[in-house]
Amino acid sequence: MSKIHHGGNVEEIAEKLNVPMEEIKDFSANINPLGFPSDLWNVLVQSFANIEVYPNPKYPELKKAIAQHLGINSDDVFVGNGATEILDETIRAEKATDALVLAPTFGEYERLFERIGVKTHHYYLQEENNFALEINELIDLLKTHHEITVICLTSPNNPTGQMISLKDLRKLADFCNKHHRLLILDESFIDLTIDEQPSFVNELTDQDRVYIVRAATKFFAIPGLRLGYGITKNAKLKTLLKIQENTWSVNGIADVFGQNMFRAKKYIELTHQWLDVQQPALYDALKKIPAIKVFPSITNFFLFKCTEPDLREKLIRQRILIRQCDDYEGLGAQYYRVAVKGPQDNVLLVNMLKEILGRDER
């Protein structure tokens, strides 16, 4: 696989342009533009009083807060240093030789599988179908490849923004239960979907061979703090995952934050209000630019296609950073991902795209 380059490397771009970091408009990282919840600052500051104390390695209060929010039992919850650590532990929990991931999708899955010697197969999503997953085709593929014992999917998918319906996920989960396969479902962006799309957590049973992975990073704008969590109701899967858990994987500050994050009711409400207005507005604006093809999305970012040479570099010169998707399996250098931000920033991006693409058409 090619080297993965993630979004959000503002420091490198600012140094390249010799400008302050705050002058860079970062559309490459899909972080809540409302920033850190202001009503939780006091909670965060107070947590420093215990910085010399080890956190409880079982994280009972953190798991309780997450479980109450999701309407599940605390014993169903696992926590870690970001969603990537949870993914790593769930991948290691099942002793697989072959795994299946989508193409395109988040590149860390394949990297984590390859690191422990698991061969990765790809299910290629089709551009003419807006990169939507055809569940029957996927299951047919699994039926002919008995060696694939782990399926790792994302909903909404990154970078396409497409969700997998609960009906399709249930069909796949039932197949996995019957044929002793494992489904790892990454829902890192489920809280950042327009009209608050439902999670598969609500559909889980104790018979399902399913791990669900979630992240606090994107929604609460805490990429520097790191907090992820996983959910399963299957007793055997819980036992396997507990073997992989790292001790004190969540630092004390993130632990306290996580215990309180769902209390930020106003922040959560404002986030959904922002997304439900700005996401479709940016989509409509991007669709009106003739030189690009934007794909529909249910979450806080869009994938688009543009044949303009060096578009990312041209935008960087205007102090705007977008994510080029040339490192995604199944995509290429003509594909880009942009995050939904505030109204002024979204207008700035659209106008600059129009200027650059219009200028080069003349």
What CATH architecture label of the largest domain applies? Answer: 3-Layer(aba) Sandwich
Question: SS-based structural class?
Answer: alpha/beta
Number of helices: 12
**Poorly predicted runs:** none
The first-level CATH class of the largest domain is given as Alpha Beta
Number of beta-strand segments: 13
> At the third CATH level, what is the topology name of the largest domain?
Aspartate Aminotransferase, domain 2
Strand order of the largest sheet: 2-8-7-6-5-3-4
The fourth-level CATH homologous superfamily of the largest domain is Type I PLP-dependent aspartate aminotransferase-like (Major domain)
The radius of gyration is: 21 Å
Question: What would you call the shape?
Answer: globular
